[in-house]
Amino acid sequence: MAGMCCGVVGETKTQSTVEPSGGGQGRRRRMEIQQLKLFATAASNVVVPLPENNIKRRKVEGFDTNTDLKRPKTCENTSQSENTAQSENAVQSEKAVQSDEVLEKEGSRFGLTVVCGRRRDLEDAIAVKPSFCKTNSPSSDDLHFYGVYDGHGCSHVAMKCKDRMHEIVKEEVKNCEKSIEWKETMVKSFSRMDKDVTEWSNCASSSNCRCELQTPQCDAVGSTAVVAVVTPDKIVVSNCGDSRAVLCRNGVAIPLSTDHKPDRPDELKRIEDAGGRVIYWDGARVLGVLAMSRAIGDNYLKPYVIPEPEVTITERTAEDECLILASDGLWDVVSNDVACSVARMCLRSQEVPSPPRSPGSVLNVARGESSDKACSDASILLTKLALARQSTDNVSVLVVDLRRSL
Amino acid sequence: MSTIHPPNHLSLLIHRHHPHPQFNPPPTNKFLLSTMLLDLLDNTNTTTTLMAESIPNQTFNNFFESWIGEQNTHLQELISAVNNNNNGGNEHNDDVNMIELIERVVQHYEKYYKEKSEWEKRDAISMFTPRWRSNLEDAFLWIGGWRPTLAIHLLYSKSGLQLEAKLGDLIRGITTGDLGDLSPDQIKRIDELQMKTIHEERVLTEKLAKVQESVADRSMVELSNMVSEMMRNEDEGGDGDGVSEERVELTLEMKKEEMEELLHMADDLRLKTLKAVIEILTPVQGVHFLIAAAELHLRLHEWGKKRCQRPQ
């Protein structure tokens, strides 16, 4: 699994974490940025280019190691070199990240980038939890969790989602008696997440966030959530708000979520039926305030703005190339098709795009290893493209490689 | 690029031309201070002008005009460096030459801030609304100069233009070496720098708020009332009190000191941010960045001057 993430947060907070399942609670919050490269060898640190016949075996072995996920592990060789190649300035935090956050699990290859961009506050967050839980079925399949959260008003709801959502989903999956009813499970998870946020805001006595948890400002804080749970044969996307998941299948961009905009006819009707109004004030806004019709948080806009996700379940095929999850910082300026073709070309590219003679970038990835970097390259290139096109928002891009894993 | 000299002082992009700096006291104080206080400010300016005559650059304005000329020359050198680089040639020599050029350009910025700092020590108040700048540039100022995060936005914009120009190559993995080709590590460090700079900007903005609010602090209100009372008494034929004039001067001096400190800090942050950006970039990227900075600065200055000359 190849992961790259640039997440920077104000003083000490983290907007993105990458970690495997089980490591949950005690995670560090001080990681500021990371560029991770994981390879799927649960029990060893050896670089192996994930051959098909190894996958099953690791699936079995892999889970045994979940118990010690909290323990520091080192990355395999290539990731070491790539990590070392990054900013020398950030070495300390990187080290911490490496040992605590980077774990090697099978089956998840991804790259992610979070940048503040042309905004003055970072309110986006990304969570990646490879093998965050297993199905209850006899095959006991590994599930991977990917979430992008775009906060508004303040960053604390997005941060909470980043910290908690996968844990809630995991609990709900475990509660499923037999086969998982994904729609029900995800709707319930989102609803619980929303309650968590509300309770937390009510109880928390102090906070260092911008809103200072003072009502009424605090009630006006919320976050989008687009969550993809990837199983061996399915992609389950749950969405609330205007972040988006797009599947790249054989070069074709297939949106797996539909943005919740207040002027979407069915959403407009739902809001008006609930007694709310959509007012055009710098675009369509619920009560003239919020430019999306569903979100986690945003208590003062309930019941017009709801935390109920729309869930799509997509069967995976051999033609699937990658999944792109991103905040509107990307989608506002880059179309699904362009994003898809950029990501696809990065994945297919045999050459590693890396600037020559870049200081502190001793990146020298051999050809054979280049595909591991492809997701990172795709996420960074899409981010740069969004910045180039004058995106005015934070930009968060997560690219998940879906090839080979089926 | 680590050989770049340590920072002296700071503030760069934006400036105006006005031949007579001793006129027009800062208008912001008009509503708050009595005529007498304004007179005092004017006197301060006169004193400064007299002092200035004893040093080589009679006004900061003169210094600025010659500095702009030098920046223009540097811009041409930077452009040639990029052209040479594009025409191939010895990569190592190119790098060495570019590093040397970048150092000289950065030293030129340092020289600017050093001089500015000297003038700030003499008269911080008038440096706050620099008269060498046009109204256009003035409108975009932050604590007497360009906003430090502008450096990041400048970088993103130039990088974006270069990225879109060669997007096809970059997707195919062909390196371009310019600002469109920022590596993941560079993006990460720029993002870190941006967050840090925004934070430091906010700290200074808060500080500015404190200083500005102190115009109506107890001592100022008390003093303005005292002086007003005195003036009323004078009208009625009473005695003027010489002691209070001293007090006025003393009180204003304190404000000036706070303003001066703030200017130094803001200038420091500007130069620091500029250098930090250069540090992140490769030599050729650094040259591209300095070109963009010089072009924006020089053109904005010209546009502003032209605009001032137009009948409004």
From TrEMBL, chain A:
Enzymatic class: hydrolase
Region (Disordered): 66-102
SMART domains: PP2Cc (SM00332)
Transmembrane segments: none
Gene Ontology MF: a single term: protein serine/threonine phosphatase activity
This protein's UniProt keywords: Hydrolase, Magnesium, Manganese, Metal-binding, Protein phosphatase
GO biological process: negative regulation of abscisic acid-activated signaling pathway
Pfam family, one: PP2C
The protein's required cofactors: Mg(2+); Mn(2+)
Record keyword Magnesium present: yes
Domain of life: Eukaryota
Record Gene3D superfamilies: PPM-type phosphatase domain
EC identifiers of the protein: 3.1.3.16
Compositional bias annotation for Polar residues: 75-96
Domain PPM-type phosphatase: 109-402
Similarity comment text for this entry: Belongs to the PP2C family.
Name this protein carries in UniProt: protein-serine/threonine phosphatase
Species whose genome carries this gene: Tagetes erecta
From TrEMBL, chain B:
InterPro entries named among the record's database cross-references: Seed_Dev/Stress_Resp_Reg (IPR051886), TGA_domain (IPR025422)
Source organism, top-level taxon: Eukaryota
Transmembrane segments: none
UniProt xrefs under Pfam families: DOG1
One MF term in the entry's GO annotations: sequence-specific DNA binding
Any single biological process term in GO: DNA-templated transcription
Location of the DOG1 domain: 57-310
Name the UniProt record assigns to this protein: DOG1 domain-containing protein
